[in-house]
Q: What sequence folds into this?
């Protein structure tokens, strides 16, 4: 019973198995070629790079299949399968070649890429080096600038120091000058002090001298006064008379001989007195004037008056009086002091007048 | 191959033509016709594979191609044209495979060389960069 139940199933399985066995071709070469072809076709690289070769192989495989299905000889099917198999190999080799060629091409590109990268890297390195060099240069420039600045600062400070030294020197010079000046001033001051002292001394001396002189003058004044008194006394002795022409001493006729020019002994005493007076006052000068009365000729009287004046002069010179101090003048019968009417009056007119100069020796002439 | 397929429906007509052509060929060349074009292209393929460096890069395939080619020549001489054609065709694909293998090997070599160059260059650059 159980065998009856499974019978149809067994039949179905047998039918499936027989059906499966009937479909595939019975050629090992061709089956191998199909396997190779399928694996090649499933390789996208082959399908892409060797499409033509793969297509030829497919055509050859189809021919082989047809030959097999037509029941041609195994040799023919084997031959066609072999052709197909070899063409699949060609397709595979072509794929390899093309991929290698692509790799070469890509390698070229890749190498270019690498070179580009290398160039880029080199450029980058160079750039970096340039940057570094630039930095170094910058740093050096900076350092140089610093150094330059330092040098300038040093220079400036040096100059400042030099200036300070100069100013110090100048100050020293100035101080020296001031010192010199002060010394000079001091000297001047000393000198002026000395001068002042000297002038003080001089003034003291002057004052002393002045005092002395004052004393002297006072003495002299006293002496002069005494002298004047004495002079007056002496002049009185000489019968001197104060007139508008000064002091006039008149030697009367009696001192001369009548109508003569010699001085008598009495006259000589008066002359002696006069000579003493003149010796005592050496600045005094005298003018000796001779006069007569109106008796006799004018020429005679003129001559007589001159002779008498000269006689007095000669007597004075005889007594040691300098000739420059005694001048003479004869006036004859001119300038009578009284009338010529009586003998007494005429005697008064016969005279010699001695005019004394002032203290400086000036005589007012007639 | 296509010719055979097309000939089948008009076999009687074609037979007449083939006979006439055979007569003409025999008269003209005094030789068998055979797969001359196939032989020529196979020889060219073998030659190309040789010059592509097949003996160096794909010696087995090239050797196969050469052996099959000589077999085809012998078959031609024996006027076994079907065998000659088969051998010539196989020789052609063998030669083509040798050719392709040699070319791909060379390309691979170039690629390897370039990759090595690239590596060296990279190394140099990296070294320089350091």
A:
């Amino acid at each position: 019973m159980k065998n009856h139940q499974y019978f149809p199933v067994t039949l179905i399985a047998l039918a499936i198995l027989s059906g499966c066995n009937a479909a595939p071709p019975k050629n090992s070469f061709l089956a191998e070629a199909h396997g190779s072809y399928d694996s090649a076709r499933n390789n996208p690289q082959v399908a892409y790079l060797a499409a033509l070769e793969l297509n030829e192989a497919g055509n050859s495989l189809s021919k082989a299949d047809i030959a097999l299905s037509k029941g041609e000889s195994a040799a023919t099917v084997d031959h066609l399968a072999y052709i197909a198999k070899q063409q699949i190999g060609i397709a595979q080799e072509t794929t390899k070649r093309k991929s290698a060629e692509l790799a070469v091409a890509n390698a070229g590109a890749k190498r270019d890429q690498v070179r580009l990268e290398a160039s880029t890297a080199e450029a980058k390195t160079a750039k970096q080096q340039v940057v570094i060099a630039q930095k170094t240069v910058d740093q050096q420039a900076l350092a140089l600038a610093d150094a330059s600045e330092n040098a300038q600062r040093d220079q400036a400070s040096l100059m400042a120091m030099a200036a300070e030294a100069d100013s110090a020197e100048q100050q020293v010079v100035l101080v020296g000058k001031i010192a010199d000046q002060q010394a000079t001033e001091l000297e001047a001051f000393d000198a002026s002090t000395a001068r002042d002292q000297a002038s003080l001394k001089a003034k003291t001396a002057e004052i002393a001298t002045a005092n002395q002189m004052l004393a002297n003058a006072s003495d002299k004044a006293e002496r002069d006064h005494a002298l004047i008194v004495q002079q007056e006394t002496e002049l009185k002795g000489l019968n001197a008379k104060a007139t508008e022409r000064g002091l006039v001493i008149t030697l009367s006729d009696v001192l001369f001989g009548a109508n003569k020019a010699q001085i008598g002994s009495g006259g000589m005493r008066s002359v002696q007195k006069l000579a003493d007076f003149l010796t005592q006052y050496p600045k005094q000068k005298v003018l000796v004037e001779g006069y007569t009365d109106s008796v006799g000729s004018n020429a005679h009287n003129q001559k007589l008056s001159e002779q008498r004046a000269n006689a007095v002069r000669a007597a004075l010179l005889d007594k040691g009086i300098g000739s420059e101090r005694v001048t003479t003048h004869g006036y004859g019968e001119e300038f009578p002091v009284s009338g010529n009417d009586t003998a007494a009056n005429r005697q008064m007119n016969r005279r010699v007048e001695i005019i004394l100069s002032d203290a400086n020796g000036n005589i007012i002439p007639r | 191959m296509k010719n055979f397929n097309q000939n089948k429906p008009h076999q009687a007509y074609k037979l007449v033509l083939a006979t006439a052509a055979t007569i003409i060929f025999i008269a003209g060349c005094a030789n068998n016709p055979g797969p001359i074009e196939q032989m020529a292209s196979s020889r060219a393929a073998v030659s190309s594979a040789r010059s592509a460096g097949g003996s160096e890069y794909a010696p087995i395939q090239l050797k196969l191609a050469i052996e099959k080619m000589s077999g085809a020549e012998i078959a031609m001489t024996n006027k076994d044209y079907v065998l000659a054609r088969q051998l010539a065709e196989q020789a052609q694909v063998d030669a083509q495979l040798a050719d392709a293998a040699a070319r791909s090997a060379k390309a691979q070599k170039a690629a390897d060389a370039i990759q090595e160059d690239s590596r060296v260059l990279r190394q140099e650059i990296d070294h320089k960069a350091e």
Notes: The longest strand of chain A covers residues 246-252. Residues 15-25 of chain A have pLDDT under 50 and may be disordered.
